[in-house]
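Quick question about two entries, pasted in order.
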Amino acid sequence: MCIAIYKPKDITINKTNLEQSFKANPHGAGFSYIENKTLKTKKGFFTFEEFWEAFEPHQEKQCLIHFRIRTHGLTNKENCHPFQIKPGLAFIHNGIISGLGSGDQSDTSEFNDKILKALASRYGVNALYHPTIKHLIEERIGYSKFVLMDRHGNHSIFNEHKGAWDEGVWYSNTSYKIVKPLPKITTVKNYNSSFPTKWELQRKRFAALNDTSNGDLLMLDIAQWDSGTQTLTPKDTILEVVAINHSDYSVDCMTQDGTDFLYAVPILATTNLMGMPTSDDTEEEEDFIADTYKFYNNKWTKQLN
């Protein structure tokens, strides 16, 4: 699912954050930077060492940075970000744009060719910064996020609120963070009592998420309601993981045919089919955790019912 990063001028990004971003999104990296009112792009790095060697001399400059997870298209330099819309204007994207992408071309590349380049050619590059055009693009890309930047330093973050600022840098998701294990705790469960503590539930969530990787196949144990698309994905649907969200213990998934996507699926609402059990719970404990999950997500559960 990738990570898109916007770094303003004179802000130094933590190298550890970049290295973790590459580890979580290893299918090609790239960046754009401004130098003497020229927008320059370097991409197609398939090791972090190559990326860092190219990026380090420019780390004080205003930059777009991207690390890719392949969902559509080949793993090659051409499908790496940033993409040029027009000379002096580039963008990076995090997410999946439904209805686009093929075996060779990524969905982002096709969106650029069919939508962004056409808009810029017809109405000029400044049109892409107009609030109305921005709103229309955000409606089309759904949960996706992307960032425009031109050679003058003008930039615009689409669906900015779906990412987060951290120490002056905007990240489209939390895959730049190193997840720290929760301390081991010992609990005594009383199955006649109502529910375990939230701390215990958090430990279960962490264990399940830690055993999940991009590309894993998951089966839904509980039907999932998507408030954005107003659709219900039924129980027992098999999905492929395309992104892991450590901030809320969820995963973003796509259907096996790659046509539909489901975001922020709670990890405890799934079963991992890749030979890596999401926990070592007994059947009784699994039922107990499922009941607890519903208890702590009453609003969500009511939507399903």
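Here is the second entry:
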Amino acid sequence: MNKMTRRTALASFAAGTVFGTRADAANAIKIGMPLALTGPLGSVGEQMRRGAELWAKTVNAKGGVTGRPIQLFISDTGGDPATCVRKAQEAVEREDCRLLFGMTLSSEALAVVPKLAEWNAIFISSDNGDGRLTGESFVPNFFRSNISGPMGARAVSLYLREAPFKKFYGLGMDYAWGRNSVAVFEGEMKRANKEFVGAVFSPTGTKDFSTYITKIRNSGADAMYFALAGDDLNAFLVQAKQYRLGEKLQIMTEVVDMTTVRAVGFDPVFVRDRYAGEQGIRRDVAKGIRHVAGQQRRRAVAGLSGAANRDRGGGHNGSRSAASRAGQGRDR
């Protein structure tokens, strides 16, 4: 088998030949998807699974890509990087999947990318937020179709340069994406001559955020930024409302996820902004959520479609999560 490089892959995508032509229509296009379907980020993995299955069903009903059906090989990693590497390797070696898609956690992606050249495989990310994947840990066989966590953190920080808040606190999940995002936010605040008073990191799967919320309340900060996802995000938002954290300081994030709104309802996600009318915020953010929901539905389809058949126009949507003031209240 010829070695697949970034240059040849891009050329093949553009020509629509990376997966062959109608001459080998009987051969399915095989896509490996090691996903965290269980565990704290299982809700995120399930979104990715449903999106991919909907895309495959839609494309196959129209005759496939260049006449070839799409075949997905989905497996559960439980959110564990070592398991993700093993599941990805099984997809490559047992099922001959040369295209990998959909790893849920950045820590999983960081564990897989060093193996791509050895496997002669391409990995297209649609959800991994750690900036190192397209920075110091970048490899030619990796493609990112979403924005990174640091890009989202910077979007929030740009707003805050003109905001009245002076002291900030950070809360992130204790793995690659959470730490990377909070670190970027801290750096941006210091460059804006704002005071970053501290940060805490919660283990993935945290259910009780009371000690974290108490620490944040007592920090002296007048605003906080958080990088949480999945069940952890839902738990924090519900408890933040119970402890009336939003009345003590402004809560902000770049994470918007429809599963959160469905899980905790509208009210726990949004708290009053002391510098703006609540109803105005609700209208603006509700409009944004509807937009993000549409983007998320299209993202899974566009990410896969763009990879499988570039000339069909299914490019990269470029939105892992909208920059939003979520204290008023999750991608990919």
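Reply: Confidence is low (pLDDT under 50) at residues 12-25, 269-285, 310-332. The two ends are 32 Å apart (CA to CA). Hope that helps.
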